[in-house]
């Protein structure tokens, strides 16, 4: 039997995802399709959860792979991907890569250890590429790929996105293909929709996957049942907007609720949604009944000019109202923010606001809405996005030779900010607001909260129970007792949970600061800024010469 190996590259720095053992669903799903290729077995190495040494020369010696695939969905892992690809290419092993970054940077990938680039969705393409390589067939017969032939890059006919009718025919990702895991997977990633109907300037999803397409609720439900029967109870839905296909979402939630009722299983789900899902309270109820506990919400910014420039399509005046509605329904909220979004010559809205004023606006929004956990990042100019294009046009993107892709994780500054913002101040202010939220006072508060937990549950229970009586509610006594106790437990646990997570968040922040301290990043920024000035001067000279001609 021949061996196909897929490598998921390691994160360059310790980050919020380092503790979560959840492999990328798309990568595992695509690798699973190769099991259909006759004469091939498949293994996956997730470098973020691997027991052995990450020496691919040694791994290849112990278990020779005939073809190697590489997951290029995260720009911050691309330097590692190219490093691994080059190891295998030097050993004479054909290498194939795909993902958002690779699709946007084909020439770069083909000059960095990658033999074949899969363009677009790989489930139908990758098995064909593996068959062609194995049989010696011409790669030009496979549509949806690019490769080098002599000194030229060949682009075969573009393949259309996978049709809705075909999504249900795809095999479920086989997570058992991941070998030598250091830790058992803690979250099972589920995927129902692909693409996005919104056009946020900073996002690569709609650019790469187009408009939303959705698998059927029954297809997703079968995967949930299989996972639950194998002992997995916690799920993360990777859809960029869980509520985007509303009727399908509602049907899936009803299926999950019915399954839980019949089996007694306690399943928990985390999903990504837009804040305006709060307008559909019927759907919110269905989500809660199904076991959706955590909403990851891309607020992006509480500054109206930012939202308009991002093309986010959110009503700032409604964000507070939406948030309180979601909290009232009992959801935990993980708020995701982008601080310091740049403005351009053609921006819809100009923003005359210092970085400290922006930080304070963010802080007041987070504090006012008592958001449970937050993720505050700097804008990341992902290749192929409108944001990257504009930064390049205005000569504000720091050279990759100085600020490499491994810095494209939201924790580092990768471009020249607005003229009234100092890069050093930008870096320190961003770190400051995160430290302010994940502060060290969480530890003593956590210690005294533990013994007070039963008392707090009791007080909240009495308040909820008798409050309903005083308001004249006609709810049956048994139901009132059950709902009042559930409410009391949830609200008291929220406080304890958030203290624990904020303490953990501070630990993650401190580890990142250690990584930062090991690098002279401020020195690198100065070099990058000097380089931009040289490029600008060179452009001016070129323009003068053109005018003279």
Describe this structure in words.
- This protein is of the alpha/beta class and 549 residues long.
- It folds into 3 domains: 2-155, Rossmann fold (3-Layer(aba) Sandwich), CATH 3.40.50.280; 187-379, Aldolase class I (TIM Barrel); 442-517.
- It has 19 helices and 15 strands.
- The protein has helices at 25-33, 56-62, 78-90, 100-104, 106-110, 125-135, 164-167, 205-209, 217-229, 246-263, 281-290, 304-310, 316-328, 355-369, 386-393, 423-437, 442-470, 477-517, 521-548, and strands at 2-8, 40-46, 67-71, 95-98, 116-118, 145-149, 152-155, 188-190, 193-194, 213-214, 234-237, 268-273, 292-300, 332-338, 373-377.
- The strands form 3 sheets. It has a 7-stranded mixed β-sheet with strand order 2-1-3-4-5-6-7, sandwiched between helices.
- α11 links the parallel β12 (268-273) and β13 (292-300).
- The radius of gyration is 25 Å and the shape is globular.
- The termini are far apart.
- The mean pLDDT is 91.
CA-based shape: globular
Proportion of beta-strand residues: 5-15%
Q: Which CATH class of the largest domain applies here?
A: Alpha Beta
Task: State the distance separating the first and last CA atoms.
Answer: 65 Å
Number of domains: 3
């Amino acid at each position: 039997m021949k061996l196909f190996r897929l490598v998921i590259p390691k994160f360059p720095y310790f980050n919020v995802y380092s503790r979560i053992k959840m492999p990328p669903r798309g990568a595992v799903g695509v690798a699973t399709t190769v099991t259909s290729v006759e004469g091939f077995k498949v293994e996956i190495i997730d470098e973020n959860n691997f027991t052995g040494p990450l020496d691919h020369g040694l791994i290849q010696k112990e278990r020779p792979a005939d073809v190697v695939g590489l997951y290029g969905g995260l720009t911050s892992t691309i330097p590692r991907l190219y490093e691994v690809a080059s190891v295998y290419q030097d050993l004479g092993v054909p290498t194939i890569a795909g993902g958002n970054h690779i699709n946007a940077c084909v020439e770069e990938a083909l000059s960095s250890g990658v033999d074949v680039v899969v363009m677009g969705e790989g489930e139908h393409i990758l098995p064909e590429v593996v068959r062609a390589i194995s049989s010696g067939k011409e790669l030009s017969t496979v549509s949806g790929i690019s490769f080098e032939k002599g000194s030229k890059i060949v682009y075969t006919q573009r393949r259309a996105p996978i049709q809705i009718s075909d999504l249900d025919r795809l095999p479920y990702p086989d997570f058992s293909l991941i070998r030598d895991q250091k830790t058992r997977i803690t979250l099972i990633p589920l995927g129902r929709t692909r693409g996005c109907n919104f056009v946020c300037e900073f996002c690569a999803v709609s650019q790469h996957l187009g408009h939303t397409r959705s698998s059927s609720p029954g297809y997703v439900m079968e995967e949930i049942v299989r996972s639950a029967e194998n002992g997995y109870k916690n799920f993360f839905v990777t859809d960029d907007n869980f509520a985007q296909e509303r009727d399908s979402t509602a049907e899936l939630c009803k299926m999950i609720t019915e399954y839980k009722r019949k089996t007694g299983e306690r399943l928990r789900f985390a999903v990504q949604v837009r804040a305006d899902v709060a307008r559909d309270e019927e759907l919110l109820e269905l989500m809660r009944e199904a076991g959706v506990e955590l909403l990851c919400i891309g607020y992006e910014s509480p500054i109206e000019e930012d939202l308009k420039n991002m093309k986010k399509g959110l009503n700032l005046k409604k964000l507070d109202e939406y948030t309180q509605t979601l909290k009232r329904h009992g959801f935990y909220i993980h708020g995701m923010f982008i601080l310091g979004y740049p403005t351009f010559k053609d921006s819809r809205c100009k923003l005359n606001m210092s970085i400290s004023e922006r930080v304070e606006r963010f802080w007041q929004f987070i504090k006012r809405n008592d958001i449970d956990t937050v993720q505050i990042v700097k804008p990341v100019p992902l290749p192929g996005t409108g944001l990257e294009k504009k930064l390049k046009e205005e000569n504000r993107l720091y050279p990759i030779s100085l600020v490499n892709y491994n810095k494209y994780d939201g924790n580092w500054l990768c471009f020249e900010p607005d003229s009234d913002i100092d890069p050093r101040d930008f870096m320190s202010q961003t770190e400051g607001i995160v430290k302010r939220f994940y502060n060290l006072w969480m530890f003593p508060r956590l210690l005294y909260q533990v013994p007070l937990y039963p008392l707090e549950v009791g007080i909240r229970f009495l308040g909820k129970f008798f409050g309903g009586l005083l308001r004249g509610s006609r709810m049956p006594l048994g139901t009132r007792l059950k709902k009042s106790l559930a409410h009391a437990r949830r609200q008291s646990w929220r406080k304890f949970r958030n203290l624990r997570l904020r303490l953990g968040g501070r630990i993650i922040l401190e580890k990142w600061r250690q990584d930062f301290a090991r690098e002279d990043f401020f020195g690198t920024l100065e070099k990058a800024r000097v380089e931009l000035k040289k490029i600008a001067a060179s452009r001016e000279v070129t323009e003068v010469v053109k005018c003279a001609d």
